[in-house]
Amino acid sequence: VGQQVGGIYMASLGRTPQWFGEGAGGAIGLQIDSKDPRLKSWLGAIPQVLSSGVKPDGFLARSLPEEENEVLAMGFVKALMGPSSKFNSLLTGLRQGTDFETAFHRAYNATPKQAAAIWAARK
Fold first, then answer.
1. How many CB atoms lie within 10 A of CB 97?
2. What is the pTM of this model?
3. How far is Cα 77 from Cα 119, in angstroms, rounded to an integer?
4. Checking CA distances to 15, which of 22, 50, 60, 61 falls within 20 to 30 Å?
């Protein structure tokens, strides 16, 4: 339920990419229920998916198999939530009607593709 509510909330902020809503939903669901077996398995699968030779930013364009898209989107958005001031800045921009790409760049000083590449390299 937390995953669904989180994803719906993110989608309600404007025209956000599908990966963002799905990833935020998973990350929020994991915060609400850290014992959720499906979300825990997704979290554990991130290194395996990244080491399988997929493009680390492929989930942004939804070019990976469905579950791999969801696994990487959740991991990436969970990492984005880490520095809460940046994530809050992104959400504030979205609430104010700023388009996603601009709000993201203002918050993280990078495009989603650049940020995803940095995140994947750290995994």
1. 9
2. 0.89
3. 10
4. 50
Q: What angle do CA 90, 73, 50 make, to 5 degrees?
A: 130
Report d(CA 101, CA 1) in Å as an integer: 28
- What gap in Å lies between CA 62 and CA 90, rounded to an integer? 22
Please spell the DSSP secondary structure of 43-67, one letter per residue.
HHHHHHHHHTT--TTGGGTT-S-HH
Tell me the pLDDT tens digit for each residue of 63-73. Answer: 999 999 999 99
HSE of 32, CA atoms in CB hemisphere, 13 A: 13
Q: How many residues does the chain have?
A: 123
Spatial separation of the C-alpha atoms in residues 113 and 31, rounded to whole Å = 25
Is residue 16 left, alpha or beta, with left meaning phi > 0 and alpha meaning psi from -120 to 50?
beta
> What confidence tens digit (pLDDT) does each residue in 12-69 have?
777 899 999 999 989 988 888 888 898 899 999 999 999 998 888 899 999 999 999 9
CB 18 within 8 A of CB 44: no
* DSSP at 30: H
